[in-house]
Amino acid sequence: MRPVPAAPRRAANWLRPSQQNIVFALFAVLFVIFSIFLRGFLTADNMLTLLQNVAVLGILGLGMAMVVIGRGIDISLVASLAVPPGLVLQMVQNGHSLPFALAAAFALSLAFGLVNGWLIAYAEVPSLFATLATGLFLAGLGQVALFKLDVVQWSPGMNALTVIGQGNIAGIPVSVIMFGLAAAVVTLFLRVTRLGTYLYAIGDNPNAARITGIPTRPVIVLQYVLAALIGAFAGLVMAASVNSMPTRIYNSTLIYDVILVVVLGGIGLSGGRGGVVNVIIGTLLIGTMLNAMTIMDVSYSGQNLIKGLVLLVAILTDSFLNPRNEETAQQGDI
Amino acid sequence: MNERLLSLRYRWWPDHVVGEILSKRWTETAIPAIVLVIVAAAFSAAIPGFLSAASLADTARQACEIGFCVFGMSLVIIVGGIDLSIGSMFALTDFCALFCLDVLNWPVSAVIPTTLLAGALLGAVNGILVGYFRLRAFITTLITLIVYRAAYDLVIFRHSNQIAAAFPDIPSWNFIGGGTLLGVPSIVLVYAVVAIFGHVFLTRLRPGWHVTAIGGSRRSAFNSGIPVRRTIAQCYVASGILTATGALFFAARLGTVGGDIGVGLEVTVLTAAILGGISLGGGKGSVAKAVIGTLIVLLITNGLTTLSAPGGLNRMVLASILLIAAMIDIRWVKNRTRIISKVYVSPTYHAMPPIPATDPDSGSPFAQNDRLRNVAEIGVGLIEAPEDIILDHEDNLYAGSRHGDIIRFFPPDYERMEVYAHIGGQPLGMAFDRERTLYVCVGGMGLYRITRNRAVEKATDETNRSLRSVNDDSRLRLADDLDIADDGRVFFSEATVRYEMHEWPVDGLEARGNGRIICYDPNTETTKTVLHGLKFPNGVCIASDRQSILFAETWGCTVKRYWFAGAKAGRVETVLDNLPGYPDNINLASDGNYWLALVGMRCPALDLAWRMPGFRRRMAKRLPVDEWLFPNINTGCVVKFDEEGRILESLWDLGGVNHPMITSMREHRGHLYLGGILNNRIGRYRLADADPNFVQYDVRWGAAQ
Known about the structure:
With 334 residues, chain A is mostly helical. Helices cover 70% and strands 3% of the residues of chain A.
């Protein structure tokens, strides 16, 4: 007899009730239900709106995903989103050239990522706490030293950048293409490069990775630098699509949405698991729900309430299908 | 001259205190406490009246409201979770209190329990999800944060106008919000009660220990039978109740249900908890840390607000202080044990005269010989570490063993043996009292006794706490040897109060007077320290006048005499000085003199090192323990001395064949029995000219009853 081909096992793997698959199934069910019962949901226009609305969230999710895979968390992502792009807008407004402003914002993002990484990798401050504080610092810095107003307006000098946020290419909104681009780059990084493999190794077991000879600390620094740069990229896309940078976004609960996208998609907070596909699944679920509720004219609070309850159902189902017990739970695994 | 200064410096400067203070658990709170002091000092310098009573009272109300939430968060963090929904719970319970009071017009006595119950229910949702369904705390409470906040937004949308329009004027409600008792704000009193209970709960009560154990290692806690799920769930419920308490006071103080109440509160609360030193991941934390963390965060935010700093600057300063404090705290917690182990060993100056000659042809009473070369051996390979041996009137031979047993060998040939009693710790010195109860000093456990029907009883394991010691010296760490006075009082030595039994050579490296003589009175069941500051007191023996004891100081290389009764009561005199080795046990000889074991011989290198404390300190800091210079205990001898301090003879096994090291010897019917703490045998040496009927018990207590 011939050996069992790999395909059935693969199929079985796809059917395994992992959190990723549960969330995907939930997304599919919701999508089908909305398509059937909700007028105006399953139209090309609405689909594009849906994607456009969640593109920025998706890009941020990619940055967060990399950090979470490396067993960290980056609460400062919204500050990275708001401040460096805000700086670009402000500098151009003040008469600097766009390339110079972009270079300055890049330098700021880079420095911010390095500080985050150093604090977490070398000073060994818990990532949750370190990024909480640095995010606070960066937001404060923006308020005090960089911006004149809370909302930094788009100025004509910025027009070269409009392409990344507005318009369509082959009928697809540019912001969605930007999300796709970012997803492709992150996928390549995680799947093809050696550093990506190191990231998974560190997330899976930092001590083992270190003993194996992986330069864990530099890689951890790198993951926060990349997260900061991705955050800044998401900020530019957002600024280009709404023609301004509302820096008060730092005070919103956006960061919780980002964490939900990542964790619901199936990237465990204990690290070493998941990939870009999980971010896309998480983004789709959140996007579908938000879009449908907007069509149904649910209030913002009502949306949050429903969103939270659905999420709760999702992780509850996961815990029933993949129970954790005290024997396998990790120390400090919150 | 230099050496004189050195000796004075080590005599009066308490080096050892540093290590002892650092090894106290409460020093873990030191860094947050110092940060608090610095912050308070900085702001009171920058802002006049910052620490005035009025300003403090106002800050105190705010601090306690947040402080309750920090307690809840701390409890959840200690049990190994996190509660991000605190801010939303705070808002919802605040609404609940005001809704009941203003809209439903309930009495205050009903509002309070309802609000607390609401908090408990909200917490119970978290608790059931995280505790029983074992969801991840971070993501679960993140979702409940969103859900609770959404619920709050929906309810205030409907009722905020009603609440804003009501101005309840109820004395008891106003008292909660702004009243004082004896000048202290009402909330501070409640907070203090909760804090004290929380401290007792975490440090003294079984459920509190369960909480810490689960946070430290959930797996081990589960395996040792702790109800992990229930305890975790209860912690979240408690977090809800504590948050509701804070919200209740907040509601009474301000009476508003604004849309931004509790927004970002979880960040403040988390910051306070971590800044206080409660480590994320669980198992570590205390009430004091939570209080300190709360105060730091609140002083910083209030101080900056008073300075009317722009919001952004406020944030930057807060973030910087948080980061710096967290970094210092993390470094400190991580390296604390290493720092302690480096500074704990604190050698002192100890000068000794030149070593007396011990060469075989020196003519000195210590001249080496081979008289112990051919002793008979008892129990070779059957016994391990017989530190002391003793014989009773029926010639049975008792010896301690490393495994925590008292072994009995039977006469006449001592071939047969049995476990006479099992104690559990290593038996050291032994003595019979008049009723033939065997008193035993047990290393690490204290003074025990074995009655004639073989029952093992604890005599004592603690003495009075001395006020001059930083270490808690009430517990007995290394009870060593004993003898019993005529009135039944037991005098025993405790070799060191700074080290455990297995670390005793390190005490020799320090050469400080860390030991003491303790008296246990079985008639009153009391224990009292009678002499302290002794350099490793070891052997103890009642002297011939029955009013004094002879005791050996191992690192002092002396034998001293202490009168506990009679005309000279309380006095100490030196009997033997500058011995060539380290004295151990002392016992009676049949001719009225005393046998003394020298467990090891001095060598010029350690004698020199004892005069160079700096050298030994560097050695202890820079070298691994196995490369330290330790006292030699490889070879020793038995000497006989009289009460005037004359050495009469000495017995050696120069080649080190049978009994290289001797810690104890006991004369019995014309034989000398030898024990050694590193030996696997007991020696039996025939004394040619000794009284063949000498039995120590009979001499001490009269003929057997």
